[in-house]
Write a structure and sequence with these properties.
- The complex is a heterotrimer of chains A (600), B (324) and C (292).
- Chain A is of the alpha/beta class.
- Chain A has 22 helices and 22 strands.
- In chain A, the strands form four sheets. Chain A has an eight-stranded mixed beta sheet with strand order 6-7-8-3-9-10-12-11, with helices on both faces.
- In chain A, helix 3 crosses helix 4, helix 15 packs parallel to helix 18 and helix 16 packs across helix 18.
- Chain A is elongated.
- The N and C termini of chain A lie far apart (60 Å).
- The mean pLDDT of chain A is 84.
- Chain B is mostly helical.
- The mean pLDDT of chain B is 80.
- Chain C is 75% helix and 0% strand.
- Classes of the chains: A alpha/beta (600), B mainly alpha (324), C mainly alpha (292).
Chain lengths: 600, 324, 292
């Protein structure tokens, strides 16, 4: 394939704002470029107001003259500056559209058959009988019968109208079909049927498809490539599999997290911040007010679409950042400290062994991305706690490296280490252990600030109160002066979290943060952690033995066994299709309400 | 449709009954006054008085009067005119065609201009022409019809002397051929019909324009345009075809308004229609004529409503009860 | 026409602010209306003569004594015109009040009560709306005789059905509101609920109705007078036109210019003023109605 079939370059579509305010301009599409090859399907995804429908209409020249700038080349011919009369013969014949909102897409006073036949008579010069015959053939193809053709639009169901619209769109055998939200508002069965139909049609005719949708699952099933649109600009373009399974742009990542589907049991997460206003876009990168990894450059300059690992991303930082990376970590303990007893021979319990080295962690490598929740699961003694401490720096590794925000943990000197301490925090399993019983709540939460020497006394007080309210604890003077032994387990663990938050860290490693709490407290605290994490874009490494719990919050799960990471992957896959047998046994043993489980 | 027909008959019956009871219930007992030598309404002509007594039958029981009245209405006996001593039905028969000619022409003209103008204005919505026409229509639909008539009469009839000032045709004219007759009648028709059309034009223009603007904003119009259909087909085939649906109902509802306007016009232009008839009858307190005219006019308007309803059902597929 | 009421409040209510708040057409309409009202109120001071007195030569041309000349009996036309304002406004207002009174009464009872009462009342309304207006009006005028009160009554009788419909629709929707149901829960009688909760809410609607009804009433009154069904003793504009047209050959001289045209113009202007004010009120009402 040399020349692409459709080539859009630097397309701008601006309208005057419709609510009467003079001068305000809606910048629906603000400079996008993409190509479409013959017999290719591209999905343009985004939320309401992102400009996707505007693109579709621009490809048919339906916008008022003067509002479209840029280049639209169809098989080499420039379309963007055509007059209405020049557009007419191209419409439907070369590019056709199946519009959104099928309920109002048909003229109520003509029957369906006439409306399907209409473009054929106009563009192909068919006589009435020819057009009727062809319309019947088209109807059959999409699964409609002759009686549907005689009916009026109000007599057909939405699903039937959707198919009729498809038949109408295909009537002049266009080269490109634009399907604008074909699945929205439909029940799941109709939706599935429509997707199958679209696939069949593509196979039979070889036409190119532009799917405009916010339905990511449909995009996954129909398109080879996906372009993600946010507030009038493209943020990520790449192969559908890549983009939808491993999104690289923060917005795509957020979008996928917010999308309900049967694959994941994880709770939905919204994207923080507010939906954008097309008439008043933020300066610099459009997404920066809602992006958790924005830096100063993002506020100033718009990132161009650049190629990163085989796809196009519009991000100054090159996409989602890796917060933490571990390479081949190793940690060995000696048993001199009576830490481990090993049964060497049966019958000889409690025999202390000498100098038995235990490899707590062996060749562990992992990555944690910005805003991601990674869970490490395994039984007691699998090494997960050790791993957690290694990553935070509480323990020194015997081998391998930990890189946090691009800097090696080991190589840092005193001052940098202090700096680092601010950005990674640790939450231990037992709050009673991790928190001094003598201190008041205020002192506990303030401690990191005191140690780091941050701010004045009032500022510290304010941050303490802020942190306490973030974990839904009271922050009045009365509570601040309570001692830790006066608090319940759940409250204390929240205090521990507040303490971890007060330095505004970028990554939190939480070691079994809720296992010592009752079920209802567990649920609340884990939800709290998740919420804070999402809001601040923190990375969260959750160490737990409870697969069922972890499944609700984790994006990826790593399974550890005897010091090794035996399996790792997206949470939904690990749970649904565990590959390693150990993982499988973990999944089976996880708490479930299935009454058929036999006790083994 | 059937229940509408029943409603139609019910309303017709109400009109008849209203017509019957109104004079008998109102203060001053106007009918009795006709036969009372003491009152100012007393009819001196014995022959006419006898006919009135026979028609109204005021000495008979009410129910019998009612029955006789209904029978008379159905058979066409509407009494005799006091002023002209002729059967009312004949008077109506000679005046009705003129009114129908006038209102028909005016409605047709107003509808044609209103539809064409409204469609164009909607197509070019927001343009200077559209805004001017809309503003003009709003103003025009508020100017009293008799004022318009007066101005036209003065300018075109008196000052410029292009058109005759009054009448349905030249008095005492004798025509060589039907064509000459038609020409003369036509010449006399122009001013009154034009006036009435102008009075009715405003509301029709606004209705068509506003409907059409609404239709043009509908999704299916965008689809039609995306299908690459030519502008004429978009405007007439799709947009207007939809926008006209409420127009038919509007026409029916405003048939009454047309009659109202016709009364003023015929009075002003001395046009020999029903309006003129009732005007003269009122001046002379000629009750049989007044009642007769009211009855006939009400029947005509009701029938027009019924016709419009039926037509509406035919035209809008959404109203039909067909199984898909 | 954007409403800038907040800025108007802040900057003080200057005419320009008021104009942009109401919309140019409504603003102009209110000025014209105010003008007419003032003329009507101060008629004795403004009119040079008593309109009933014969103060000039019949059909005298306009001159310094008689700005618009005299009619066929020698009465001053300008004075007739000025006093005519009173008639038109009085009948307009009276008929409007009558229309609204009947319309609100029937409409609120029908809308609130529902059931068979609603059906019955609406059936009556439907029938009345189907009947052709003017012939009925003429019929009534013939029976009832002429006179200003009769005119007001007749016009009210003709226009109340349309008002009743509109009021009924509003009352029906208000009836479903929470606070109305609460009032009924407390034991409020229908009369109490209507008076205390519902009627105040439809106040703006009533105001709008009054203005539009007044416009129609003025037109109808002039029309009736024009047809000779009005009060022959009340010097209304319509009556002036009727007498003018009665003069044979009026159109062949230029007398129409100062006898026929002025009353016609005044009627038209008053109707337009009322209509524009009504349109302004309607615009003001629209968002509130939608919000409710």
């Amino acid at each position: 394939m040399n020349e692409p079939l459709l080539s859009v370059h630097d397309l701008y579509v601006h309208f005057p704002s419709s609510d009467g305010e003079t001068g305000a301009v809606v910048r629906a599409v603000d400079g996008i470029s993409f190509d479409l090859a013959a017999d290719e399907a591209l999905a343009i995804v985004g939320e309401t107001g992102s400009g996707k429908t505007t693109i579709g209409r621009a490809l048919l020249g339906l916008h008022p003259p003067g509002s479209v700038r840029g280049s639209i080349r169809l098989a080499g011919r420039e379309l963007a500056d055509l007059a209405e009369e020049e557009w007419r013969p191209l419409r439907w014949r070369r590019v056709a559209m199946a519009v959104q909102g099928v309920g109002t897409a048909f003229d109520p006073v003509y029957n369906i058959g006439d409306q399907i036949a209409e473009p054929m008579r106009e563009h192909l010069g068919f006589l009435p009988d020819e057009a009727r015959a062809k319309a019947e053939a088209l109807a059959q193809r999409v699964g409609l019968e002759a009686r549907h053709l005689c009916a009026y639009p109000h007599q057909l169901s939405d699903g039937e109208k959707q198919r009729a619209m498809l038949a109408m769109a295909l009537s002049c055998a266009p080269e490109i079909l634009i399907a604008d939200e074909p699945t929205s508002g439909q029940d799941v069965l109709s939706r599935a049927r429509l997707i199958t139909l679209l696939r069949q049609v593509r196979q039979e005719t070889g036409l190119s498809l532009i799917l405009i949708s916010h339905d990511l699952a449909a995009a996954a099933q129909l398109a080879e490539r996906v372009a993600v649109l946010y507030n009038g600009k493209l943020v990520e373009v790449g192969a559908a599999k890549d983009v939808l399974q491993r999104p690289r742009h923060p917005y795509t990542w957020g979008l996928l997290n917010a999308y309900p589907n049967m694959t994941t049991a994880r709770d939905l997460r919204g994207i923080r911040g507010r939906s954008p206003d097309s008439s008043d876009p933020p300066p610099g990168c459009r997404f920066h007010p809602r992006c958790t990894q924005a830096v100063e450059l993002c506020r100033q300059a718009e990132p161009p679409l650049t190629e990163v690992e085989g796809r196009l991303i519009a991000c100054h930082l090159g996409g989602l950042q890796i917060l933490l990376q571990a390479h081949d970590l190793r940690k060995t303990f000696s048993t001199n400290g009576h830490r481990l007893r090993r049964v060497v021979q049966p019958g000889k319990y409690w025999r202390r062994q000498e100098e038995q080295a235990v490899e707590a962690v062996r060749d562990a490598s992992l990555e944690i991305y910005e805003g991601e929740v990674v869970a490490v699961v395994g039984e007691t003694g699998s090494g997960k706690t050790t791993l957690g401490r290694l990553l935070v720096g509480l323990l020194e590794a015997d081998g391998g490296r930990v890189v946090f925000e691009g800097r090696g943990l080991a190589a840092v000197d005193g001052r940098q280490r202090k700096e680092l301490r601010r950005r990674i925090q640790f939450i231990a399993q037992d709050p009673f252990d991790a928190i001094s019983p003598r201190l008041t709540v205020a002192e506990i939460v303030r401690e990191p600030l005191d140690v780091q020497g941050i701010g004045t006394a009032e500022e510290r007080q304010a941050r303490v109160q802020e942190a306490l309210s973030a974990v839904s604890l009271p922050n009045n003077a009365g509570f601040l002066s309570r001692r830790s032994h006066e608090l319940s387990g759940g409250q204390l663990q929240r205090v521990a979290i507040a303490r971890a938050l007060v330095l505004d860290p970028k990554l939190i490693v939480a070691d079994e943060p809720v296992s010592m709490l009752d079920a209802s407290e567990q649920a609340k605290v884990i939800n709290l952690l998740k919420e804070i994490q999402n809001e601040r874009g923190m990375g969260l490494l959750l160490i737990s033995h409870d697969l069922a719990l972890v499944r609700k919050v984790a994006d990826r799960i790593l399974v550890m066994r005897q010091g090794e990471i035996v399996e790792g992957g997206p949470a939904s896959y690990i749970v649904a299709q565990p590959q390693h047998e150990y993982t499988r046994s973990l999944v089976q043993a996880a708490p479930s309400f299935s009454w058929e489980q036999t006790v083994n | 449709m059937k229940c509408r027909f029943v409603a139609y008959l019910a309303t017709l019956w109400t009109v008849l009954t209203l017509n019957f009871f109104l004079p008998r219930l109102l203060p001053g007992d106007p009918l009795a006054a006709l036969l009372d030598p003491e009152s100012s309404e007393y009819v001196f002509d014995a022959e006419v008085r006898a006919a009135l007594e026979a028609y109204y039958g005021l000495d008979r029981p009410l129910l019998q009067q009612y029955a006789a009245y209904l029978k008379g209405a159905v058979t066409g006996d509407l009494g005799r005119s006091i002023r002209l001593n002729e059967p009312v039905s004949e008077l109506i028969g000679s005046h009705l065609p003129w009114t129908l000619l006038l209102t028909g022409t005016a409605l047709g003209l107003a509808s044609l201009i209103g539809v064409l103008g409204g469609a164009e204005a909607a197509w070019k919505c927001g343009s200077l022409a559209d805004r001017l026409l809309t503003a003009a229509s709003v103003v025009a639909s508020n100017i009293p019809v008799y004022f318009v008539g007066m101005m036209l009469l003065i300018i075109l009839g008196a000052e410029l002397q292009w058109l005759p000032l009054a009448g349905g045709r030249t008095p005492f004219a004798r025509y060589d051929s039907p064509l000459a007759a038609a020409a003369d009648i036509g010449k006399h028709l122009i001013l009154p019909a034009l006036t009435l059309a102008l009075a009715l034009l405003g509301s029709k223009f606004l209705l068509v324009r506003n409907n059409m603007v609404g239709v043009l904003g509908e999704d299916f119009m965008l689809v039609a345009r995306a299908k690459g259909l030519p502008p004429l087909r978009l405007k007439w085939g799709h947009a207007l075809r939809n926008a006209l649906l409420p127009f038919v109902a509007h026409l029916a509802a405003h048939a009454g308004m047309a009659i109202t306007g016709a009364v003023f016009i015929e009075t002003l232009f001395n046009y020999p229609g029903m309006g003129r008839l009732i005007f003269e009858a009122v001046g002379a307190r000629d009750y049989p004529v007044i009642q007769g005219v009211f009855l006939i006019v009400a029947t005509v308007v009701l029938s027009a409503n019924l016709l419009a309803d039926w037509l509406n059902e035919r035209l809008d597929p959404r109203l039909e009860e067909r199984v898909g | 026409m954007r409403a800038t009421s907040r800025s108007a409040q802040r900057a003080g209510v200057t005419p320009l602010r008021l104009a942009s708040a109401l919309g140019t057409d409504a603003f102009l309409g209110s000025i014209a209306l105010a003008f007419f009202v003032l003329v009507a109120l101060f008629a004795p001071l403004l009119a040079p003569y008593d309109p009933h007195q014969f103060v000039g030569q019949p059909l005298e041309h306009p001159g310094p004594d008689h700005r618009l000349g005299a009619n066929d009996t020698g009465q001053d036309i300008l004075s007739e015109l000025i006093y005519g304002t009173r008639i038109s406004l009085a009948v307009g207002l009276g008929a409007a009040v009558g229309t609204m009174a009947l319309g609100v009464l029937v409409g609120s009872v029908a809308g609130y009560a529902g059931g068979w009462l609603d059906d019955l009342l609406m059936r009556i309304v439907d029938v009345m709306m189907t009947l052709p207006r003017l012939p009925l009006l003429i019929l009534l005028a013939a029976y009832l005789g002429s006179g200003l009160i009769q005119t007001m009554v007749i016009i009210s009788l003709l226009f109340w059905p349309a008002t009743a419909r509109v009021i009924r629709a509003q009352v029906q929707s208000l009836r479903q509101r929470g606070y109305v149901k609460m009032a009924r829960n407390f034991g409020g009688s229908p009369g109490y609920v209507l008076a205390r909760h519902i009627l105040p809410q439809i106040g703006p609607l009533i105001a709008f109705g009054l203005v539009t009804a007044a416009g129609r009433a003025v037109a109808m009154e002039a029309g009736l007078a024009f047809l000779g069904l009005g009060d022959p003793t009340a010097k209304s504009w319509g009556l002036m036109m009727r007498f003018a047209l009665n003069l044979p050959g009026l159109l062949l001289t230029d007398r129409w210019l100062w006898w026929l045209l002025p009353p016609g113009l005044c009627i038209t202007l008053l109707i337009l003023a009322l209509t524009f004010v009504g349109m302004g009120l309607e615009r003001h009402l629209q968002p509130r109605l939608k919000r409710r």
